[in-house]
Amino acid sequence: MIRIPVRRLVGTSVLAVVLAVPVALSPMLASPAHAQFGFGRIVFDPSNYAENVLTAARTLEQINNQIQSLQNEATMLINQARNLASLPYSSLQQLQQNVQRTQQLLSQAQNIAFDVQNINQAFQQKYGSISLSATDTQLVADARSRWQNTVGGLQDAMRVQAGVVGNIDANRTEMSALVGQSQNASGALQATQAGNQLLALQSQQLSDLVALMSANGRSEALIEAERATAAEQGRIQRERFLTPGSAYQPGNARMFGNGNN
């Protein structure tokens, strides 16, 4: 910030006035232009005296105007320096840490990650059409894998929820600090920077909300996918049971030996 010593400026200007007044009044102290010497005395010229006084007054007025102009310029420079002063506070590091924490929770998604290729592959293998030729052991293993995906998705959603809730306290602290910085801003630049950081805080909160909705949506989608695949698997197993040759066939049963006793 540029600071101009106004008191020194005013003192210098007053000194200039003191030095200029004798110069302006020197014509009055000198012999008048129309002074007449006769019989040993000086004849006083009122018009010349009045003109000298008027000249001195005008000179003093010009000096005062110059002093006022210099004071205005000094005030303007001080205000410009205040408006250009940067905000001595930054919440960027804290906001970036909050975003990174949420991203880490999303990247730790179990079984089926937030990746389009991964999701397509998993659904083709675990949630696609069930083959009639699949063994019972394979059907049970696939059903268990789908159940694990669903439970993992629910756990991931709860972890993201916990992370977002953990960011609330940090966001509250940052919001309080930024509002205080905005209210105590000494210039336009500081107020603007505080406002920009408040917008960044809102963006971080929105990103947390998007992450939370994504995690919840993922868990709900896994539940519905498991439910739909379980219904299809039940249909296949029922059809296999009712197919001729594969269902229960009645036959002779022998009890208590061969029946001759």
TrEMBL record:
Q: Which InterPro entries match?
A: T4SS_TrbJ (IPR014147)
The protein's name: P-type conjugative transfer protein TrbJ
Keywords of the record, alphabetical order, are:
Coiled coil
Gene assigned in the entry: trbJ
Coiled coil residues, start to end:
53-112
Q: Respond yes or no to whether keyword Coiled coil is given for this record.
A: yes
